[in-house]
Amino acid sequence: MQSLIRIRVAVVGALLGLAAAFAGPGSAQAEPPDVTVGDLTGFSAEGPVYHLTAGRAEARVSFVSTETFRIELAPDGKFTDPTGKDIVLPQGAPPETRWRDRGDRYELSTSEVTLRAYKAPLRFALFGADGRQIWAESKGLTWNGDKTTQTLARGANEQFYGAGMQNGRGNTSHRGKTVEVGVDYNWNDGGHPNSVPFYLSSAGYGVYRNTYAPNTYAFNEPVTASAKEQRFDAYYFAGQGAKDVIGQYTKLTGKPFLPPIYGLEIGDADCYLHNANRGERHTLDALKVADGYVENDMPNGWMLVNDGYGCGYEDLAETAKGLQDRKMQLGLWTEDGIAKLADQVKAGQRVAKLDVAWVGEGYKFALDGCKDAYSGIEANSDARGFTWAPESWSGAQRCGVQWSGDQSGSWEYIRWQIPTYAGATMSGLAYTTGDVDGIFGGSAKTYARDLQWKMFLGTTMTMDGWAANDKQPFRYGEPYTSINRDYLKLKESLLPYLYSYAHEATKTGVGPVRPLVLEYPDDPRAGTDAAKYEFLSGEHFLVAPVYKDTTVRDGIYLPKGTWIDYWSGRTYEGPTTVDGYSAPLDTLPLFVKAGANIPMWPGIRSYADRTASSPLAWDIYPQGKSSFTLYEDDGVTRQHRAGKYATQRADVEAPGRGAGDVTVRIGASMGDFAGKQSKRPYHFAVHTGDAPSGVELEGRVLPRLSSKAAYEAAVQGWWYDRDDRGGVVKVKTAPRATDSAFELELQDTSAVGGAVPGASATLSVPAGQELGAGTAGKVAVDVTAGSKDATGVEVSLDAPEGWQVTPAEPVGRVAAGTTRRVEVGVTPAKSAKAGETTLTATVRHRAAGQDRTAVQRFGVGVMPEPPLADTWASDMVWLKATNGYGPAERDRSNGESGAADGHTLTLAGKTYEKGIGAHADSDIEVYTGGRCTAFTADVGIDDEINGYGEVAFSVEADGKVLWTSPKVTGASATVPVDVKLEGARHVRLKVTDTNGSKSGDHGDWAAARFTCA
């Protein structure tokens, strides 16, 4: 597909170039002068619609609701509306309005807002019912032959958000930045696919530009908002915060659709028929891949079976039936449009992925494609419409998922996608996503890291057949398969939580994935770079993805409140910034807000695994009074639109802090739908940190069970698990009627954090610890006592099978607030692979009168045996190998996206048998273990690039830069490298882009060799 992408981009570029050629450099003309609307020359009122004339120009103000209104300006006095009925939905009866002539202005008012229209010149300003200015034009509306612009005064601390999917940004303020809104076919960092001509301000308003024309918003002083057309048409929303404004905007343009439940599961895409990358296959071969998900116990909701240029399909009904038998649904990529959609849906299609190849005109064409595909699924089945689109516009939130396009998997890809999707929520886009680890490139490690955090998005897909390896989550082997399975199943268990937020989006317009500033608008850091690389999933999960090749995450900002580490149970009080968070490959930095009541479906691979007797689990982090309303329906059909759904509320009452009783009230399930459980067992995990004296269900004492095994075997009862995340009370009930409420009381326990908050000890592990395969070593663990002494301290380690662990000597006492380092003997298995391995440290101790347990996951490096003699760099184990495009190559030049698809290394006409072929930015790490004295090589840009490219090479050892080349171009002479390495243990070979363009940056480390003793 890489060549096809290049062709696509070349065609777009050629069209743009052709347009420029018609204009011609010699035919450039002076830009027509700006014309600003003049003095008011006429005014009339027709109910909620007001006409204002200024010479030939005419403005029209129309009130939609008490807080929403529209301003139009026709420079020639003739109003037009290219969007027609495409985007704005019928809004019902307009509000009562009134107007007054105040001498220098007219005031047009509802019960909530007053729009001032100043007379000389005509200029608008908006005020709230309390007299507060919300926004004001600093000059009148302006137009020229190219665009129409509104100019607004910017508040001293005013912040701006929105403009749709803005790659690499959007969850932090646009203040001081210029944002483009339009189709640009740039799906990488800095692009703006799925743009939306809407923005909102922290001053309490939003603006939707009702147009199909591209927009430019410059949030400077003053703010200028332009659209490339000779008309002005904008709707304004005044609200009590961003959520209110988003709600008004989506009331106007459409609330987000409710996906089918399988749409919240991961999807899989590939081409099976006529796949040039994979050889001849058949559509039914998709079922073999589906079997891979089943055999590996991995969730998968749907499969696109024709995702490739020139890829057709056959045996469609049989394929759909086979997927349904495996608890999946059939999707198709609509490369050629949707003319055949009706027959495809009747054969079993339930997902439609649109493509730039036929929605390339963008704007109206793309929006129509989204709506038509969505309605086509619904017109020919009882299923809900479910589409994916790479380019869309306002209104698309009501018919599809906005997908960020074809990208290459890398650490950078993860980094810039984090703010992208959370930021898009600020424009009413409830479901935005990108492929797991991209469509090209990628690696086992970046795949695992990318999948982890994308499980907390609403929708996700993995795409195969374009990179060197297929990208199903079971392709990379262990430990990656197990890590990916764990996160896929975690998402599956959280479906009730995420689906409830999906339903909420249909009412409020606010999607499940949220920037911190949406929930914490008064936090001065929430809209800044301090929170750029994290987001909220719903209101209760804070996700801080790892976007570098590291086992430690710094700079995690936690806003006001109590936050609990999801894996260890450790509590943090915000606002605070967490540095040094231990995040080995299997650990996504994930926090839960105290007060969370999270509904879960435990132990399932597919939503379809649920039966009439399946339990509903509640994961509860008690603090003060809190509640959550679970939403349920049949998950697939459209019957919920006719009222066929149910809600059930969980209320928890606990101390605000410290000791006390915890009461959980589960309300009756209100409503009905096909397949609703009439009764079900309930499971509770209540994170208290202290064992209760007893647990009562409806006033009757529940039996306390003595062990995990006894708890799992029981039908009803409770057990305090001191070893689970700081101490969790686990409760089971026998099946109970869902139409009846009940109450659970945990007596003499505490809010999350324990009866004596901070009493428990905590663990930390120094980063960068290394062990040798088959060699005895030690791992250091730091035990820090909390607010009370820790006594009887025992530290142990959980390690992989085949490793040997020698327990540390017990420590009698660690004084409150002090740290004691404990060393545990560890011998990795001789067969242990070089690279990162996850261990878990456990400290069992007593503090504040309770037996307590603290745990901490961490990563250690398993090192290969260091070189015993001179060795080629290409023959060594590479601890890390990041590369700008495709994999770095051993003894070949950098090729395409596959391994070993490069060519003979050639520099300045000389060929080399040994060496490394890389592409900027590249970073390769090897372990020398202090046994090598020198590194030599010839470096340069490979001859195959024919003079292009510009890079610099560098050699680092143990964190210090030992050598850096001058800038090297494709025309430069070969640069010799001779670097002394006395005592170095780790050596990194880097190739870095130096001119901002990575085209042709094929940097070779030819004859790269280590001199070792």
Give a description of the structure:
It is a single chain. With 1013 residues, the protein is mostly beta strands. β33 and β34 (571-578) form a beta hairpin. α9 (444-454) runs parallel beside α10. The protein is globular, with a radius of gyration of 31 Å.
Percent of residues in β-strands: 35-45%
In one word, what is the shape?
globular
- Helix/strand class: mainly beta
Global Rg: 31 Å
Total strand segments: 73
Please outline the major beta sheet. 10 strands, antiparallel
Helix content: 10-25%
The low-confidence runs, each spanning 5 or more residues with pLDDT under 50, are: 1-28
Mean pLDDT: 93
Separation of the first and last Cα atoms: 47 Å
Number of helical regions: 13
Summary of the model, kept short:
The chain has 13 helices and 73 strands. It is mainly beta.
Characteristic key phrases:
mainly beta, disordered N terminus, single chain, eight-stranded antiparallel β-sheet, ten-stranded antiparallel β-sheet, 13 helices, 73 strands, 1013 residues
Write the layout of secondary structure elements.
Layout: H1 2-23, E1 35-36, E2 42-46, E3 49-54, E4 57-63, E5 68-74, E6 98-101, E7 105-109, E8 113-118, E9 123-128, E10 133-143, E11 148-152, E12 160-164, E13 178-181, E14 195-201, E15 205-209, E16 215-219, E17 223-227, E18 232-238, H2 242-253, E19 267-269, H3 286-295, E20 302-304, H4 316-325, E21 329-333, H5 341-347, E22 349-353, H6 356-359, H7 364-379, E23 387-389, E24 400-403, E25 408-409, H8 411-424, E26 432-433, E27 440-441, H9 444-454, E28 461-463, H10 480-493, H11 495-508, E29 513-514, H12 516-519, E30 535-537, E31 541-543, E32 552-553, E33 556-565, E34 571-578, E35 581-582, E36 590-593, E37 597-600, E38 616-620, E39 625-632, E40 646-653, E41 659-666, E42 670-671, E43 679-680, E44 682-687, E45 694-697, E46 700-701, H13 708-713, E47 717-721, E48 728-732, E49 736-737, E50 742-750, E51 762-764, E52 770-772, E53 777-784, E54 790-798, E55 804-806, E56 811-814, E57 819-827, E58 835-847, E59 850-863, E60 871-872, E61 878-882, E62 889-890, E63 905-907, E64 910-912, E65 915-919, E66 922-927, E67 932-941, ...
Parallel strand pairs: 19-20, 19-28, 20-21, 21-22, 22-23, 23-24, 24-26, 25-27, 38-44, 52-59
Antiparallel strand pairs: 1-10, 2-3, 3-4, 4-5, 5-18, 6-7, 7-8, 8-9, 9-10, 10-11, 11-17, 12-14, 13-16, 14-15, 15-18, 16-17, 29-30, 30-31, 31-36, 32-35, 33-34, 33-36, 37-38, 39-40, 40-41, 40-42, 41-50, 43-49, 44-48, 45-46, 45-50, 47-48, 51-53, 53-57, 54-56, 54-58, 55-57, 58-59, 60-73, 61-66, ...
Helix pairs in contact: 9-10
